[in-house]
Amino acid sequence: MSEQFVIHVVDDDAAVRDSLSFALGAADYEVRTYESAPQLLERADALEPGVIVTDVRMPGMTGLELVARLKELGIGQPVIVLTGHADVAMAVEAMKAGVVDFLEKPFDERALMNAIENARQRISNVAGRQAEREDISTRIDQLTPRERDVFDQIAAGESNKSAALKLGISPRTVEIYRANVMEKMRARTLSDLVRMALLHEGKV
Question: Which domains does the chain have, with CATH numbers?
């Protein structure tokens, strides 16, 4: 990879930092690691072009607070957030704030590599984004009314259980509809589905 493309990994867990650094290094990415969001911000003026991969929950400053601060500073590197299952709603809010992708833990290395490459491709890709938005609209039109309801709930960050309560159906029924929605929308992951919804709404 070019020296001008660096993966900046921000996580308070040393084991996670080491694991990500090893995996990304093995894929020929240049990697810098940071124990905290403030540590990355200390280098804000000299931050190499690339992608920032950050955990959502960290002491002192969360991943979302980091995203907000980067925005204030005018730092435009794409950000990917790592989130636990309970933080999906938070990750959706992060995408609305400008994060390009999120990965639910545990995730495999291929998912991370795909997210990074997608982030690279989205940089300054306005024409491609408009074409993707039109394609997403076509897929949404193929959903049944109930599938659209479930799609909207999932895209808002609701769990299967909370979506079931709001829609008056069982969590198991939500799971079935969710599987149908994923297939019709051609979404490989939950973050794919959320990003499609936000693109459709013009929020990313």
Answer: 6-122 (3.40.50.2300), 126-200 (1.10.10.10)
At 45-95, the pLDDT tens digits run: 888 888 999 998 899 898 889 998 998 888 878 899 988 766 777 777 777
pLDDT per position as a tens digit, 167-202: 999 999 999 999 999 999 998 888 888 888 888 876
Ramachandran angles phi, psi of 53, nearest 5°: -115, 115
pTM recorded for the entire structure: 0.67
Nearest to 114 by CA among 159, 53, 67: 53
Structure token pair of residue 19? 């694991």
Can you list the alpha helix ranges (DSSP code H) found in the chain? 14-26, 37-42, 63-73, 88-96, 109-122, 126-141, 145-155, 160-167, 171-185, 190-200
